[in-house]
Each structure stands twice: as structure tokens, then as C-alpha cells.
Amino acid sequence: MGKAVGYATEKPTVVQRTKHFFADFVRQWEIQSMIWPGVIFMFIFCYIPIYGLTIAFKRYTVIDRIDSAPWVGLENFQIILSDKFFWESVVNTLGISFLKLAIGFVVPIILAIMIYEVSLSGFKKFVQTISYLPHFLSWIVLGGMLINWFATTGLFNELLLTLGVIKEPRNILLDPDKYWWIATLSDIWKEAGWGTILYLAVMAKIDPTYYEAAKIDGANRLKQIWHITVPNLKLMISLNLILTISGLLGSNLDQTLVLMNSQNREKAEVINSYVYRMGMTQGDFSYATAVGLGVSIVSVILLVSANAITKRLNDNQSVL
């Protein structure tokens, strides 16, 4: 018996693990044939290009190869620290991102609960379809709509003139002080409905007997939502919060390129558009790569920090 126990707890050697791996690979070749193309794709287009990050520490031009460009160490990062235009883009990015976090994060949760509480199936499907629709439209289309609506002769000004709110029309997109709100609210309009999908999927799995028991105990609908629906959404809310916080420095580039103009640039320029302008427009690839690398490092730190905080709030249960 002692030998049997000792044999059972003996760790397999590297050769044995390798044999088991290839045996499982052959046995599951149908499943592996679906997985490995994706793995190969990620390796080619996501991991091999990491070598290109070295140009953040070089003085690279289009006539150089990555390996032939001269090393400059941390020179590009020193330039970043003294670049006022970069820090303006950081302020704009954080301002817009925090508004989206404060408002846009809560709206899909409330909308999902409202849709879930609707008893008429036909009306529920209609509301879901209408709320999902903007997500499938590109920012080129939605941005064009907003530009027309906010124009001097657009729908928005006509409505305000009719209601007597303003005395003369003006193009709101040309006002830099209002851009953060335009970017935030338009993004919520586009993505709020799509953001309800995961919450609705979780709520669909809630046992209906919980609500029946709460109703018997005298709980009204609001108390049922607060004590049953919301606690069941806690893990999904935590997961979305982690992903949202980790993306605070990654404002929507498509939205910015469509809505930004020469008048509102001081409030509309975000880090992504700044990197795009420095790299693709001005050809300073080393500087743009250094900015992108720095943003990626900070995003990873935000991801780990948000995960640690939510883990403590969820009784040391991680959602990642």
C-alpha cells in the first residue's frame, strides 16, 4: 500500500509529460485543428511585432531598418515628459474616460435591469433592437449625423430655438468646452445597448423562485432588484469595471478623428489621436512608439490594481 501511494504521488518526468501532450494532441486533433490557427495568428501578428517596440529606444526613420537604427536610450521618454501637447492629451483622455466611467458604466446596468423587468416580450425585443442598433453603425456614420445635428442649421439648434433656450444658433462642436460631454454622451448612445447583453445573459440564469419567495415575504419590485438582481450581477459588474479601468488611457480613436476639428482640438486631442498624429502624420515613429509603450505599461498597472481591489470587495474571489 505504501508503494502504491508513493507511486501515485510521484511527479511525471519531462519525457512523460511530453508524451502525454502529443498523445492528447493526436487524440484531440479535431479540436486542435480549430484552436491552432488562432494561436498561430496571434503569434505572428501579436507577439512577433513586439520586437518593434525597440524603436522606442532608438532614433528610427523610414529609411532605417529596426536593427540598424541608432540607440538613444531613454531620450524619447525624456522628450515625452517635457512635451506640453502630450500632457494636454493625457488630461483630455482622463477627463473623457472618467466621464464615460462615471456615467457610461452605470447606464448599461440600469438599462439591462429595465429591459429585464419588462413583461411584454414583443416590446422587450423592440427596445433591445433599438438600443443595439447604434453599435453596428461606424463612427463615420454616427459622426456625420452628429456634425449635421450640431451644425448652425442643424436639428439641435432648431430645437433649442423653437423652445426658446437660445436666441441665435451656434455650432456646438466648435466649442471646446463642450467637447468632453459630446464625446461622453455620444459614446453612451452608441454602446449602452450593446453593453446590456452580458448583464441580460446573467439575469436570465437567476432562479425565478428567488423573486417568488421575496414577493411572499412582502418585498416590492425595487427591493427584489436591489437584493436579488444586483447581487447576482456583482461578478459581471466587477469584470466590466476592471476592463473599463484598464482602458482609461485608451479613448476611442475613431470617435476623436471624426469629431475633432481645428476649433476644439485643445479639448478633443486624446493620447491615441496624438500617437496617430505623431507617428502616421509627422513620421516620428520612435516618439509615437515610446508614448504607446508608456501607455501600455500604465494600463497593465491599472488592470492589476483594479483586479486586486475588486478581489477584496468580492471576498478574495477574482473574476479574471
Automatic annotation (TrEMBL):
Keywords attached to this entry: Cell membrane, Membrane, Transmembrane, Transmembrane helix, Transport
Keyword presence, S-adenosyl-L-methionine: no
Subcellular location: Cell membrane
Primary localization: membrane
ABC transmembrane type-1 domain span: 90-306
Pfam families for the chain: BPD_transp_1 (PF00528)
Residues passing through the membrane, by range: 34-57, 94-116, 136-161, 233-253, 285-304
Topological category with respect to the lipid bilayer: Multi-pass membrane protein
Keyword Transmembrane helix found: yes
InterPro entries per record: MetI-like (IPR000515), MetI-like_sf (IPR035906), UgpAE/MalFG_permease (IPR050809)
Family statement drawn from the similarity comment of this UniProt entry: Belongs to the binding-protein-dependent transport system permease family.
Name recorded for this polypeptide: ABC transporter permease
Naturally occurring in which organism (per UniProt): Paenibacillus septentrionalis
